[in-house]
Amino acid sequence: MRTIAKNKVKLQNHTRKLIHVIKSKLEKVRKESKHWKPILTGDNVYEKFEVHGHPTNHVVDIGKRLCTCQIWMLTGIPCVHACATFSRVNKQPEDFCHRWLTIESYRKTYNHHINPIPG
Ligand SMILES: [Zn+2]
């Protein structure tokens, strides 16, 4: 009961989209993404890219939220290849994190309260 109440108060002041831990991880990934070079495949909606780098190349599909390295799909956080692609098309990686990692989902977790019991 105390934990729920404490976290509910903490969340009142948050205006960011992601929780702090996820935001830190995403910043680290974004810095590492500068070593990768996305190349547009020429699709009509500008969503498919081949991302070149070491040790191998990967394919990113922004529309399907997929990368062939599978990290984006498994963690819900865009991988270095996806972040490299986002910087190419001027999109924010925060908008492509899984909804479970957002402050809004965290708020829903602590949206309820436990009724006190006398005695
Ligand atoms: Zn990837």
Automatic annotation (TrEMBL):
GO molecular function, one term: zinc ion binding
TM spans (from-to): none
InterPro entries for the chain: Znf_PMZ (IPR006564), Znf_SWIM (IPR007527)
Keywords: Metal-binding, Zinc, Zinc-finger
Keyword Zinc appears in the UniProt entry: yes
Domain SWIM-type: start-end pairs: 58-90
UniProt-listed SMART domains: ZnF_PMZ
Domain of life: Eukaryota
Name of this protein: SWIM-type domain-containing protein
Lineage: Eukaryota, Viridiplantae, Streptophyta, Embryophyta, Tracheophyta
